[in-house]
Amino acid sequence: MPFAFADAGAETRPLHVLQPDDLASWAGQQDDATRNWIEASSFSGALGTALMIPGPDGRPKAALAGYGTAAQRARHRFPLAAALPQLAPGTYEIAGGIAPENLPNETLGWLLAAYGFSRYRENAPNTPGLVAPDGVEATRIEALARGEALTRDLINTPANDMGPEALEAAARNLAGTFGADIAVTIGEALITRNLPLIHAVGRASAQEPRLIDMRWGETGPTLTLVGKGVCFDTGGLNLKPGSSMGLMKKDMGGAANVLGLAQIIMALNLPLRLRVLIPAVENSVSPESFRPQDILISRKGLTVEINNTDAEGRLVLADALALADEEMPDLIVSMATLTGAARVALGPDLAPFYTDDESLAAALQASGTEAADPLWRMPFWEPYESMIEPGIADLDNAPSGGMAGSITAALFLRRFVEATPRYAHFDIYGWQPSAAPGRSKGGLGQGPRAILGALDKVLPL
Prior knowledge:
Keywords: Aminopeptidase, Hydrolase, Manganese, Protease. Residues 308-315 form the Cytosol aminopeptidase domain. This is Leucyl aminopeptidase. By secondary structure, this protein is α/β, with parallel strands linked by helices. It folds into 2 domains: 12-136, Leucine Aminopeptidase, subunit E, domain 1, CATH 3.40.220.10; 142-458, Aminopeptidase. It is 33% helix and 20% strand. It has 15 helices and 19 strands. The strands form 4 sheets. Strands 6, 7, 8, 9, 10, 13, 14, 15 and 17 form a 9-stranded mixed β-sheet that branches. α5 (138-156) runs antiparallel to α10 (253-267) and α13 (358-370) crosses α15 (448-458). The longest helix has 19 residues, at 138-156. It is elongated and about 80 Å long.
């Protein structure tokens, strides 16, 4: 099974994880042959290095992995994974050198290092096997890895194979695997069900817009995940330049992240009632396109002036959030690749989130640090509310001025969540620009592990 720990066996090799300052002490406890081999190899314990130790027959009997200094490790989510390309094929058992509190993340990084996007050509790295160390919840780590792999696969798939129909199929496959209920509202039925913004954004595409609604679990607190599923974003009539359109297959990254998180929750059989809402559309150009200065009426009844058709993600989320809010779940979380302003503020590696709930914010921040899924809290800044009020309608989907774009988008979304006691919005990037240990270049989960870790702190699980 992919992204799984190996079984311990006769061919398992011990892996000694060593920092530079610990190498001399460790080597001093070994036999002469091992010490001489280390000295001859110039192995120093630097991050991203490894050394195979030969036995009497010349075959590797053990391995060393460089763990680097604390300053070097701070630059990586999964420092141990940096050494994996230097290890010989086989199965390893970690034989010390990693603090117990760091083992869950380091073993997760090891499993994630095996990810490669192989839909169109074989691309999986030849990653060695790992036996789950004592004290590590193997089932949980494997679930995290598989959820992340699902998210990456969905984002990495180009729009010709991951349009609204394929995104629906992926959700249906997930629902079928875990016995979840799923209902999908498509095309003109969106108008009948009072989801007009989703319809308006997606009606220009060759594939009809739809709302995916998945439910799982019968008891426990209620959690609703809302993910932006814009499968490709041309910008609509406010057409993007080619340089900005190149990565728009990832504009359904919010949907991919909530589906990955949903898979983890269901695989771990958490005691809660889960709902996943995904407005799946393509923002295309045709005679059916919605236009700048159109005024649209949302499900909630709020009117929205369209001042940029490229600010479509908040529109489809608005209807989905209003629908979610009507049930007043214990917690709503929205995830979206929403604004370039968030990238300007925090870059691609750090995901901003918004919430008015102090205990939820603290839980997310702490869990993000613990789970190597870092977040940064941004403010629902009340003085900027006037920026999203155009005068001619209740709301403006693209305030002029170019300032505080991520904040004004979050404030826009908050207008559609009023009854639910707890709400958090994540303005993610969903993409790894260059390969790093445990993180291949391409689609990326941002926030699911932090959210998962926070659930038992903010919901009565």
